[in-house]
Amino acid sequence: xxxRAGAGRFEGGSPGVRTRHAFSFGAHYDPENVGFGLxxxxxxxxxxxxxxxxxxPHRDTEIxxxxxxxxxxxxxxTGAATxxxxxxxxxxxxxxxxxxxxxxxGPGPLRFLxxxxxxxxxxxxxxxxxxxxxxxxxxxxxxxxxxRPGDAAPVELRQRAxxxxxxxxxxxxxxxxxxxAHLYVHVVRGAVTLTAPDPAGSPxxxxxxxxxxxxxxxxxxxxxAAAGPAEFLVWEMHAARP
Length: 242
Description:
This is Pirin family protein. The protein has no helices and 22 strands. It is mainly beta. The radius of gyration is 17 Å and the shape is globular.
C-alpha cells in the first residue's frame, strides 16, 4: 500500500485554474510516476467563477469526472451541453476523437476530480453520459462506472478491466473494498482509514485525509472505515497499462 499525500501532488494551472496532479501530466514529467494500473491521470481541479478550459481535443481516452463542489458546465462536439453539481458524475469516451470545453458556471468556486484511463480498443464514436447524484450517502460502495460485462453502471466504460466505486457516509461507515490487482483510493472529504491484511504479519493501516490517495497492489481483503462524514472514490483495476 503506497500512500500519496495530497499536499505532495504537483501543482499547475492557469489564470483562474488550479490543478493538482497525481501522475505525470502536461509539462510535469516524472518517469517514476506516469500512472497506476490503467489510470493515466487523476487531476483535482479548482476553478474560479467563469474560469475553465476552452474547447480542446481528446482521443482514445476514457474520462470520468466527479464534481466535489460548485457547478460544472460541459459542452462537446457530440452535442452534449450539461451542468453538474456536487455529487454528480460524467463520463466522456473520447474514442476516435472529440472536442469539449469545461467551465465554472456557478457563482462560487468549482472543484472536481477528473480521471483518465486507457480503453480496451482504439477508435469508434465518442460517447457522453451525465448522471445526477449516483451515490447518495449510505451503506456499502456504489458502482459509478464500469466496463465489465453484466455491470449496470451509471457510466459505461470502454475498458473491461476497470470499475469505479464511491463510498459516502453522513456519519460513520465501514466498507469492504473489491479484490483486484490494483486499487486506487482517493479521499474527497473527511478521514478514511484503510486496513490491508498482510499474510506475513500484522495488517497494514493508513489514515487518509482530503486529497490523499492510496495505491494498493495485489489487493485482497482491504477495508475502509470512517468515524465521521466522509467521501472517497475507489478504482478497481484488473490489468495495467502496457
